Amino acid sequence: MTDHELNDELNPQHELASAYLDGVASPDERVLVEASPELMALVASFTSVRALLADVPPVAVATREGALVAAFAEFDEPALTPAAADAAIIPLSATRRWARPVLSVAAAVLLVGAIGVAAKGGLSGDDKSSSASMETSAKVASADAATESQMTSGTMTAMAPSTIGYIGGGADAALVIDTPEQLQALAMNTLVDTSAPTGGSPETTAAASENTASADTLAPSTPDESTSYTRGALRCLTEEQEFLADIQYQGTFAIAARDTVTGMISAIADDCNVLAIVGP
Amino acid sequence: MAVPLDDAALVRAAQGGDRDALDQLFRRHYDRVFGVCRRITGNEADAADAAQEAMIAMVRGLTRFDGRASFGTWAYRIATNASLDELRRRRRRPLVAGRDHHHDHRNDHDQVHHEQADPSAGERVEQLGDREQIDAALAALPEDFRVPVVLRDVADLDYAEIAAILDVPVGTVKSRIARGRGMLASTISRANGNHHDASERPTPAHDETPGTMTQ
Questions:
Q1: Considering A191, B70, B143, B184, which has the largest number of Cβ atoms within 10 A of its Cβ?
Q2: What is the ipTM of this complex?
Q3: Coil, strand or helix: which one is B16?
Q4: Residues in chain B closer than 8 A to A11 (CB atoms)
Q5: Angle at B167 between CA A202 and CA A198, to 5 degrees
Q6: What is the CATH number of domain B1-93?
Q7: pLDDT, tens digit, for every residue of A103-123?
């Protein structure tokens, strides 16, 4: 899009009608709009657009339940996983990101199916038994999701008692780091697996980091993309520091960064608090 | 019958580990979160992915939510970002045929808006029903106009909330919403065979609109 297209020059009639529709027109503007059949026609036109926009196709039950199951799997998942100091590092494939949604949807489908069975059973039974069946079904589905979630971390535990793994399934993926030793291992092993969604260059993202719309959730951007939606901690980097990876350090989302002069590795939270520093 | 707790109370309870409170909160907001994702991404499959990512992100960020904004505003901000991330991912990945099998009637236009705006979408609008028309018209609308319009008309946020989410001045939000609505109304009106609708009447300050929006 060109600058010309993005400029905010505006048909004043559109702005008047839009402001009127949103209830932010001044009394004088309201009088002006109401006195003009043309403007009132424009308001009617915008009202139709609003109605069409608001008429979002209904959400499929399986979609909603799948999302909730995935969210609760995250909620139920312990933020901290015990890790030994001599942690081996096994980066997980970025494709794991898809495992949770798929399994979550499967759990949701099971849930819907179970609800269907329960509802069918409810036709011949009383409400209480039907309700109980549904509750049980929901618990089964939640348990499925929890099991899947445990499998995600449990598999890694089985492979090595203490490993660094990706927290996946979200808009982002972060490495779970619980000890300074793991943080150091991250740098030494250049854990930044190219297949893992660990984020873009600090230069790119830091440039946009003043955007207040970002901090809590945002996914990584690639260096070739100009975006104002970035992780907050990048703004905390000094000129000497380079971004290594998104991490979750002892349960706090952060970034790992290397001081290019001293070689020190830091875990830096979104509020610029340095959670840990380890030597080169 | 118990009085339902407001969002703030549910948030506090959820931050304290109350799973039921979080469940209530999420069920209360999920459909609108999905609606925002649906309108920004333009199709069911990407919206489902984005909404799920948003819910997970909300869980992760819940302890840091300080209540200065309403939970809804915070949730829609996350949904907006998740949707934009989904769009960026979609631009990076190759097309997968039949990604939206269960919505075959929409596939034709679902698969074309990889860029911020699809310049040909407006021309196809006339072949579609109401819901498909608005999808295609949105696809033709540049992201900078689409997002504020969706946040206003789907999420029902006020200008100041939208400005905070997008990190632009309130005046910019106001004008982008007006322009976005004008473009949508124009596209849909033309699709319905009205070539001289109210939204298209020339005025001295009539600005040229991007893509196929101009006469």
A1: B184
A2: 0.73
A3: coil
A4: 178-179, 182, 203, 205-207
A5: 25
A6: 1.10.1740.10
A7: 666 667 777 776 666 665 544
